[in-house]
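Morning. Coffee machine broken again, so started the prediction first thing and wrote up yesterday's gels while waiting. Chain of 432 residues, entered below exactly as on the submission form.
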Amino acid sequence: MPTIKEIPSDATIISHQLMLRAGMIRQLTSGIYMWLPIGLRVLKKVEEIVRAEMDNAGAIEVRLPCIQPLTLWHASGRITQKSDLTEQMLKMQDRHGTDLLFAPTAEEAMCQLFQQNVTSYRELPKNLYQIGWKFRDEIRPRYGVMRAREFFMKDGYSFDLTEELALNTYNKMLMAYLEVFARMGLTAIPVSAHPGAIGGSYSHEFHVLAKTGESTIYYDPGLLEALKRDDFNLKDLERFYAAEEEKHGEITDRSDLTELKTSKGIEVGHIFYLGDKYSKAMGINIQTQDMQLIHPQMGTYGIGVSRLVGAIIEANHDERGVIWPASVAPFICGLINLSKGDSACDQISEDVYSSLKKAALETLYDDTQNSAGVKFANMDLIGLPIQIIVGKKNAAENRVEVKDRKTGTSDIVSISGVVDIVINMVQQLMSV
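Came back before lunch.
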């Protein structure tokens, strides 16, 4: 955990600064980062929340190759389109001269998988997803993991028999996405958006409000309150106006838009209704109950898993460092031994650490020889939700200090009560 005291000169937004300072990432080359232990733990926590909610929504996880043959993209017609996506592809050839690319997305590959294995309406619906590394050769990578060339992403693809059924799946994914972000302590606003290079006739982006966001979004103020409902769905969303800047600029016939809120946002997810754009281009046919051949209706659904780590920091920090929501914190507790080498402090620290581990409370134990000031600064910087502080005065009375990182409130408690206190704090933090 190589922490840095000074703000790195090449980092312009707070998440990039704090990820470098907290020892979460290090740059290998432009737009490509190495994930260090603390950062990797957060990335895995975010990944597991995404996976759990996709599974809860009925999606099934698969893993497709990150290297794809370019012929697939010729079949869909996307390789000949002028777009940011095709211009950002990293292309290569193998030793046999076969044209390949490092996949920025996987509509074509998923279509081939579907075509090889599904032929009848009886086998629908299918909703498949993967979580893995993608690459887009950004012309100007910036903001750390927020706009990197290599990024960790969940991409999902659904196949349905009719438009109505496809939009039902779209609605399930919308609701699943809102749950994903809520579990991370984020309010993500779904807004109408252009489908861009992915295509399709209908799409929504999900934006986390942040002053450093690259996007500008416009939305009805009532939407924020409506999003707090557990059963919020696509029909509810359509009652409110919400659009990203490019989409908003096209709207000229609405006279009821005077009360809109305007905010900066960080895009963390995007869902698309594709219709038969890819299934038709790729020659995918499904036999219906009345023996007709049709092209299945598709949807595609993306979440920027590594980008979410940066977005969470943008929404949860103070002047001292990160303040992790409990659900994604690399550790739930930070144990600080202020007097390493003192027999009482060492013994109490070891006992508390062992008790927390037995209770399955992930704990980072700072048993270094650093000064108290450095230890406090590092623990605040990495932002673990709960701090447990062992000092000589309290140790003499078999007590320790338990502190809430976010509020700064603390209590002096007996060693025997530490685990119960922490469990109660975790339950409260997870319910926020």
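The chain has a mean pLDDT of 93. Going to sketch it on the whiteboard this afternoon.
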